[in-house]
# Entry
Amino acid sequence: MRMTRRVLLQSLCAGAIVTPILKLRLANAAQRPVPFALICDASASGSAGRKAQLALDTLGGRNIPSGLLLPAMSFGGEDSHEDIHGAAAALGRTYGGLVELVAFLPGIEAERPYFQMRWASEAQDRLARLLPEDHGVRHAITLACGQLADELSLAGVRAGGFRSALLMPQKDQPTEFAQTGNGVMQISGGVRLTSLSALEGARGAILEAIARDDVVVLYLSINDLAQFADDQISSLSSSLADFLSAQADAGRINMILPSEFFFRSDDFARYVALFIDLQDASPPDTQAVSELLSDLAKTAVPFSYSGANGPAISDAGVRPQSLQCQALESDLGAPAWQELRARVARILAIENHDNASIQTCAVSHQDKPPFEDMRTVGINVLASIAGDRDGFAGLDRNGLLRIPATYTVDASRLGDGAEAAQEIAKRIGDQRDALVTVRTTASADSGTRMQIAGMLAELAKHPGNVAVDVEQLGQGVIAQDGIFELLGRSDALVSLAVGTHQDIDASERAALLQDAELAWQYFARMSDKNTGLAPASAQLSGKTVVPYTMVTMWDVASQILATGCARAVGLIEDAEFSQRTARILKHLPVTTIGGLRLPQASISTRGGGGFDNNFSASDVGRLLAALKYLGREPGFEKEIDELVDRWDLKDTISDGRLHDVDDGVQKEYFNSNYTHYATRGFALWGMEAQSPYDARSMADLDGRMRFLEQVADIGPIGTEPHALEGVELGHSEPSRMIADVLFTAQLDAYRTSGTLVCVSEGSIDRDPWFVYEGFQLGDEENPWTAKTVLDRREDDTPSFRNSVMMVNTKAAFLWQAIRPHPYSARLLSHVRKSARIPGLGFASGIYSATGKPTAGYSDLNTNGMILEAVAFMLNGHKPLV
# Structure
């Protein structure tokens, strides 16, 4: 949300006139002064804290307000206990409202919302530990960072308690301001003063900005003060104070603290969450609870409540202003935990018949409840009623927004509601979001109830307060991050044991064997008698079949594995298996490509000759996995080893990364969501290459989020290769997580739209003949993608995407194999019903727009991976390789 200049400027200027500490004198009542903020940059001052204190002492003594920019705080980094923090504490004690601490978080502007929330929250926690305990304010309202890229915002920092953000320019720029949807003021631009000693040369630029801009921020570097003697610092600071005071006296500027850009705007508001903590023994008197909550609800002020123990209290007869937050403690087997698990299971089922939503808030009366388990039952906001005001506040490493009680009052001591509200307002301040807890019992007398109701009503009327319940507070300050939210739902599904393999009954076993028999028809009918190779795809036209006689090394891998799986489920005997695979091996190519002996990217099924003279690391990575599978068969080991030794595959790994060869030139193959799978294939043969996925830091939520952001930056994800990896090689941690979030995204899409979604790469029965369908993590508007290898404008349109999106047949089988779930079963039922092509195999997919399959059109990979999935399910869910 962008504020109008009029709203901000009028409120800032009007506010300044009634602020006695600034003592502004307007030379002309018709001339409005320009709001002017001075930021003293001590971010690199190191041990020169005393000298920085001397400079700000001089300014403070002249009633010049300033923001003090503290040393940089990196996310997850170590803090140095520099002198500047002690100086900041001393200045705060001496000048109070004239010096504002500004946290410096360089780089946060480039982060997605989750890491903005985490970084801002960690910074506040570390700042509280760095500042001495006798410092009155041990948190910051304002942060500073670099300039934002287009269309990005700092909405995430509010979760850490920041309300203003200074976007520091690299060079002088006009100052502009904007407000995020959740109430963070962003101030960009300003004038840079490189040193106190540089004032004389910068006066013109400062005066020009005052005359030109609606607001001005002056960034003064005091990082060089170590080179000046104390008397020089005092003299230079006095010169700056003289200059600024002269501008204020002339009515040109109105000096403010950086946080006042927001606090004096008409849009200023902060949340005050109201929580009624029922102290009754469990179970409470349900009727008494209902009467109490009904009386409080008459105020029309939102509030939350919970009992100290036990499962949920009935909301019967209570108005919607109240929201129960479940009380959760350490016993994970307690009724409250069981109830939440059951609720999540109902909500995340394939169909949510009661249209319920996940309860997102909980309360705890303990200092250290099981934080790490709460997100698995849908909780992302935790109100801590333990009373530890110095405890962590903000988004923690478990993805919980932790809200410590700002003030707790006993209802029996409230007295007059209006007076109580005034006292509470003093205690909680008027800047930060707050949680006010009222302890009472359901059996409280009518007088106490009236006092509580009066207090709620009066507190809600206080200027700037927005009364909310605990869940609303979370919704207001947590910035939307699609990846974070999707991962939360995925984790909940996993915690409910979704995807656990179960025994297959006799009827399903028979159905799977029928599926395998039909899929094998493709290879039995279409394989060339000489090369043993089946075509990449085939179109049924009347009684004839038109094949596409080119195959890639990926396709060859599918046929090798399909042949082995056909034998594994009893469709062919050992002799036929050996004959078929021997013919394929005989026609695997080796030729000179870019000066190396390598298999060509694509070959003819009729003679084995190459269609091109390129090399694909991705396809060969999967071929190597298939050859390792085949090499374990008696009689094949030596032949396979000799075949692989003929290729100069090690020489395609340069600087630790895989490389393709295109037109004789090696090109790095790294930034792809297929690369990780390929590196595993190479590793089976002792050829180690770097994966784009860094799995070392995936142990905690921060690491998992960083990983998924990395995946999102690479591009869309699909069933292949991530679910396929689970069937063929067994899941690595990266592929498991990607498969989990993709499955959850598909389930979400179905539950929202009623349309089955199952994306992967695959052949289609019309131009452009092959499409990579996928899901783009983090894209909230158009997450479902359809890409082609052709660089054509007409293939990059919503109409094209809608026309080719399909339920991918092989993907449906793969999901049933690795993530058995009612949704997987529904996908499988859909393709079984509509994708069968008698005598040929399975259609590549079923178009979502029409519900019709690729007409008479089947392909090698579809049928091959169906055979793999069936063998995986019927043989104990063991990976093939």
Confidence is low (pLDDT under 50) at residues 1-30, 308-320. The chain has 27 helices and 37 strands. The first helix runs from residue 5 to 17.
